[in-house]
Amino acid sequence: MPDEKCVSLTHQSVKFTHRRKIIHRNAVSKFSESSKSRIPILKSRSILSFLLHAFVIDFCARLTTLSDPMAEPKENPLMEKIVSLCKRRGFIFQSSEIYGGINGFWDYGPLGAELKRNVKELWWHAMTRQRDDVAGLEATIIMSPQIWKASGHVDTFADLMVDCPSCKKRYRADQIEPQSGRIYRCEGAEGFPVETSGPTTPIKPFFGLADETKKKKVNYSYAALIPFGKPIESGRQRAKDFFFRRELNSPNPIGERFDEDIKDSIKFCSDPQCGTELSTPRPFNLMFKTFVGPVESDDNVAYLRPETAQAIFAQFKNVLETSRQRVPFGIAQVGKAFRNEVTPRNFTFRSREFEQMELEFFIKPDEVIEAIHGSVATLETPDPKSKTPDPQPNWGWQAWHQYWVEERVRFYEGIGLDRSTLGFHVQTPAELAHYARACTDILFKFPFSKKDESGNVAGDELEGIAARSDFDLSQHQRFSGKPMGVFDDELRAAWAKLPKEKQDDLWKRYYDNRKNYLTKSAKPGETVEQISKQATDDANGLAKGQYIPHVIEPSAGVDRLILALIANAYSEITETDDKGKSETRVTMKFHPRVAPFKAGIFPLLKNKPELVKKAQEVRELLRPWMNVFYDEGGSIGKRYARQDEAGTPFCVTIDFDTLGEKPELLDTVTIRYRDDGKQERLKISELLDFLLSKTR
Ligand code: GAP
What we know:
By secondary structure, this protein is α+β, with helices and mostly antiparallel strands.
């Protein structure tokens, strides 16, 4: 009996990812990367010293391996299977694999490249071509550094980071695994100085007779958390390792204390062999820096974009003027983004180079809607079973925000992610960026997503839908000196007809909002009077029909979506034959829309030229319309299995009946469905329409 076993998602591992917190400028200090442990090069003079060398080199190599940045945590069986399938079948490879890989960078193989292309095209189609109110943009990755000044990324796009001073592991402060145990402490150590061969390679073994007069004391302390159940004395060995790595041969800890018990602490290295107390958190800017032109000076610094959104804001006016759009309308962009993540993790989930699909949807401020329509409409929670409501002219930002959350969920449903696989995280006011009014994250229940206390899996972020107010356009207006506002005839006409009290009320509300923004974003030296004058000018502009549009931003990660689709599609079937031998086969149950190949085309036998010729004709018939895979190697069963693993939803076999062995079946083929293995006969003349109807 085939045992349909879709491997249950295991949720033992790992870190919940919070939306990145922007760190305030004042908290930012200069960060210099600490050097990695290096293997010392020693001049040995004897066999003993040679052996000692070998030991030290081996020891250091082990240390290096322990902190190997490529090592994925081996704690999630399903993730391990997925990672291995991705490599075996050519979905995803480690970047630069032949050189040992580079942490946080991934390449998409033949199947992955098709899957990714399909996803991006479906998004582009749904967000731009299927709508009248969205235009597209394709901007450069490197832009004026002023853009990143204005957006706040230069000063505040940072993660808090902590280091382990002993094993040199680096963690994001909000991702440290809580640890429990007993604390071992010492005040310092005494030992023999290591002869250093450079400031960062102090490890040199000590051997021979000790010259006590050369003994040295260091008085910086050391602490480690020893897990319950392990002897607290093991702290002494960890301390010795620590001082040895830093500067002392044969170190003896001094002022030892076997301290208090502690639970769920995030102050210690989570490597069970280490457990050393971590450094205090410090901010680390995530933008990759480079230089434009041949001179590497501060004047030529540029950044690889950390999000695609800012180009959209910077080109807002150009797109508005050339696309004949009017607010409300959106600008969509798909493209690469780069973040020097402190701890890339969970396969492609958190990478250093990734792709985003972002829409900046520009809307009228609520005061404008109220002036034109009398009131601002809100939205009932849309019923998932009925159509998303059509946008209305009197919608305020809340209705638009809700609309886009619902639209995006429906997009995911349309490519095979059922609502039950998704979750939501509505950001609390404390989590929101200072300019944001609301943000709802759409989550996917990844195999590594954590369970909460009640055993439920919320999921990890796939996409964030933020209401960003008029912050971004206002910032670019202030930094570039170019107006980012729009003029609205309808507003000017409506304003003139409003009663005085209503005008005053709207004026005051708009003034307060602008003043609030201007105060929070004040440049050094800007006075209260200047801010009030600017807010007054802005509110007076409203009365003349001018305003800066607000923004709703659905921002999705392509790579996370690919990983979600792969995890969602992965299913195993274990079959046991008559002799009791069981075999597990993988089927990737991709939605036909995203599947890398839409159909496999097989001649029944490769040594029958008539069958091969007919099969190739079928391939040529389908090829202009969809990606198909022609395969004549091995048994039909093997060919089905290969396509199941690639996620191909349909297989088409050309056999002797196709050639007319049974006259009534002339020019028909067998079509086999991936998910249930059912087969039926179809006329070749109907094949294209059939496949198009299933895969579009
Ligand atoms: N413009 C808004 C913005 O960039 P974000 O939440 O930082 O917001 C949006 O990123 C989306 O980009 C995320 O929901 C995620 O899907 C994707 N993303 C962000 N950082 C990523 C990373 N390091 N690796 C892969 N995808 C990432």
